[in-house]
Amino acid sequence: MHAPMLILLLSSIAAADAAGIGVTYGRRATSLPPPADVARFLARGTVLDRVRLLNADPLALRAFAGMGLAVDVTVPNALVPRVADSVAFARQWVRDSVAPHAAAGTNVSRILVGRDVISQANRTLLLCLVPAMQNLHAALLATSLHRRIKVSAAHSLGVLAVSTPPSAARFREGYDAAVVKPLLGFLRATGAPFMVNAYPFYGLTSDAELDFALFRVGAEGVTDAGTGLVYTNALDAQLDAVHSAMKRLGFGDVDVVVAETGWPWAGEDWEIGAGVDHAGDYNRNAIRHLGSGVGTPLMPNRTFEVSIFSLFDENLKPGPMSEHHFGLFHADMTPIYDAGILTAPEVIHS
Asked: Secretion signal: which residues (predicted)?
């Protein structure tokens, strides 16, 4: 093995041990491998230690039994109102969708309620978020699973009304008091993290910003005039914006987890930065940085749990070409590019 490749592998493993590296396992695609094959590959061929499911598919949950990886499951947006309206329905959902798999050896670690609920223009769904989380927690208490399974939700940066500079960040007006503050109170009370989908790729407006987005050495730093702190990469700025908004509401002590981040390896001609080299650079550098213990300017000397989006390309998703090409692996589970997460011998032969 070449020395640089060995160093990359070892640094990735160190990051996995320190913070936890996961992957989002979406399945909106044709010709994907069976979940059982995927689970074996992730457990034996990568340094990943967790996986996020965008549903609670029993086939996938059974596949991860005994594999050791922590598994986050998701309540689909369509079910959130029913879970919020009825603790009995929440208990039934936990009994049917979670408890049997936990008993059979699947390491279910979180239930995530909906996807980007706060960012959607659906007031009914929005107001159901916290009650649904409370009912699911009550259901876990009833089945004695509350100590091993936490309830949270993943949010896009669309929850913020202002995100730059990070010190000025705040949640969207009207949502902050009605939804976000009760949500953060629930997370604090139950010991669950605030989970954010952070994508520097979507913030690009010109090629000149690529070095800052990709953690490149020599990237021109950006100074936050409110704190005097200098940011050398875009992801730190995004995470600190979330932290600042939480602190503004009195919840700066709630942990922050990167529920999703990633970079497309292909895209439309007009999509700035989409490309295989940039995808490799971003994901390797993000994993290394978040697991390094350096932290961010406002959250120094800590590691961050992170899940990369996504395991496979998803050709059935709507949107521009980039939406189809966030995958780390082809359907035969060979890497599209080196993201620094494979263990030998796959790394040696990549």
From this structure: 1-18
Q: Rounded CA gap, 18 and 293, in Å?
A: 8
Task: Give the residue carrying structure tokens 């909106």.
Answer: 28
Chain centroid, CA 325 distance in Å: 17
Q: What is residue 19's predicted lDDT score, i.e. its pLDDT?
A: 65
**What would the pLDDT profile of 207-239 be if each residue is shown by its tens digit?**
999 999 999 988 889 999 999 999 999 999 999
**Annotation says 323 is catalytic:** yes
Catalytic residue check, 173? no
Whichever domain contains 143, its CATH number is 3.20.20.80
Token code pair at residue 252: 């700066």
Catalytic residue among 209, 260, 271, 305: 260
**Across 28-40, average pLDDT:** 96
Q: What is the pTM of this model?
A: 0.92
Q: At what angle do helices 234-248 and 276-290 cross, to 10 degrees?
A: 50
Query: Whole domain around residue 169: which residue ranges?
Result: 3-349
Distance of CA 62 to the CA centre of its chain: 22
Instruction: Count structural domains, the chain.
Output: 1
